[in-house]
Design brief:
Layout (H helix, E strand, L loop, with lengths): L1 H15 L3 H19 L4 H12 L3 H18 L2 H11 L5 H18 L1 H21 L6 H10 L11 H6 L7 H4 L11 H20 L11 H4 L19 H6 L2 H22 L5 H16 L2 H12 L3 H20 L1 H11 L6 H15 L3 H18 L4 H14 L9 H7 L3 H25 L3
Keywords: Membrane, Transmembrane, Transmembrane helix
Pfam family, one: SCFA_trans
Protein name: Short-chain fatty acids transporter
Length: 449
Amino acid sequence: MIRAMGRAFDQMARKWMPDPMLFAILLTFITYLLGVFLTKSGPFQMIQHWYKGFWELLSFAMQMCLILVTGHALATSPLVRRVIQYLAEIPKKQAGAIFLVGLTAAIASWINWGLGIIVGALMAREVGRSAELRGIPVHYPLLGAAGYAGFLTWHGGLSASAPLLVATENHFLVNEIGIIPSSQTLFSPMNIIISIVLILLVPLICILMAPRNESEVERITDISPDLVEMKISETVATDQMVLADKIENSKIISGIIGLGGMIYVVWYFFTQGFKLDLNIVNFTFLFLGILFQRTPINYIRATSEGARACAGIIVQFPFYAGIMGMMKYSGLVTIISGWFVAISNEVTYPVFAFLSAGLVNLFVPSGGGQWAIQGPIMVDAAKAMNFDINKAIMAVAYGDEWTNMLQPFWALALLGITKLKAREIVGYTMVVMVVSAVVFILGLILLPT
């Protein structure tokens, strides 16, 4: 059944799923029309809301570009590449390859969402490459889907936006709900059980969707033959080096600046504990990459190669920020959330909170941004029904990560690294979305926080 569903959804996605850029533009049109007809904002006011939000993700877009570029440079360094190649050579069959990618991506995403994005992408690419070199037929789009589907665990993990925010002093809802420690949200029995189930379920679902006939398998070379080729850094003979060449190939320079950065990283973790955010992840990747690439020119070449994959992020993030602006400043999020709240009761509230968050996430694909907009509405509703606030928070968190399996916003970095198209993976991740909905809903209804 899962395989048939995967085949059907894959065919549908390949036929109907546009390029992520066009997906963002279509969502822009839909949001604009909804705002005009459902809110008090007029046609020109919606355009003003659009522009007001258009540039609100610039710093975040830069962070995403950096995680892609620095992660690529680190992964292509000789030492890390050998480690990845070792892991990639473990699977002997297609099922093992898919399971390895899905499992590592899910675990990495639970640890940190930024780490999960880059680990899932790099593992998908390297496992596909290794399988091809060893003559193992592996459906490469499904490897990419497994790498992205692992992202389904992030908002129940250590970098979850909403649960960490409400555990912070002076957060914007502190007067309504107080400070809620992560022991009551992230480390509640409900979330631990759901997270473990998802970490195991995601790769298993992907395995069940794998094509049985070798004729149906799309190898990595069918997508992009150059993904299999090893890139060899150009070297200059020592006796032919001029001063500029010697500086570019100086291991001393890389060592000094790399160690300087790592001194701060060690101090950070020693004083802050295992507290990951995009800034420290990027900083760590950057200076480890400089050290592991060994010379400045090697690092420059590695980052130049990785930067080619950033085009989608650079252009599309402003459009999603514009969509968020229209949703937020027009009050459209309040209206959509209100619909679900209006039909909820004490029993169905967590389910409708989850579904409403999933719908809003299609237009506001940002965990922290979505909680800032939707959180007050869901908290007020939970208090009015005398419903468990902790479970309400996690219901919104689960909904936020759930529809990422349909929304290609977070897949942009993976698509750049793997050279896959959104339509080649979304059909499979939609199946993961459908099956995981059962886990989320049953967990919200039956498990205690």
